[in-house]
Automatic annotation (TrEMBL):
Domain Blue (type 1) copper: 51-155
PROSITE patterns per record: MULTICOPPER_OXIDASE1 (PS00079)
Source organism of the structure: Gellertiella hungarica
A molecular function (GO) term: electron transfer activity
Keywords: Copper, Metal-binding, Signal
Superkingdom per UniProt: Bacteria
Entry annotated with the keyword Metal-binding: yes
Residues annotated as signal peptide: 1-19
Full protein name: Putative cupredoxin-like copper-binding protein
Cell wall biogenesis/degradation listed as a keyword: no
Pfam family, one: Copper-bind
Amino acid sequence: MKYAVMAAALLSLSTPALASGSHAGGHGEMAVGEPGKKAKVTQTIAVSMRETEDGKMIFTPASFNVRKGQTVLFKIRNEGETDHEFVLDEETKVMEHKALMEKFPEMEHDDPNAIRLAPGKSGEIVWKFTNDGTFKIACLVPGHFDAGMHGDVVVAKK
């Protein structure tokens, strides 16, 4: 059994996604929604990511309210002094990714619902929220989530 687990781990390391240090897409249908079209954006939300003097890591703002069916442009800027990520997903998926990132800390996401930014850099995610509910934003760089870098996206029915 122990060798089977080790073999599975080694096999997973030989996949192109992990070998290149990225987490490729392939999520298929996501509960949080789908990539949106910029022409259909009805709301723009500016989000900053940074560390605080007391050692916390934060998103500003850390929570958002949107409507089901809405397409949102997240304009994300890393105002901190270290790399940060913005990952949008349902809480169970965020926690699964967090555990994987703790095992493979150099892994980067190549998903339409996530972006990793170096200090001083900016990026965008265009997202269409197809389901109502509460979802998470998180930075999954090891230690950042635990330092407070997460929040909620509440998607209300139309």
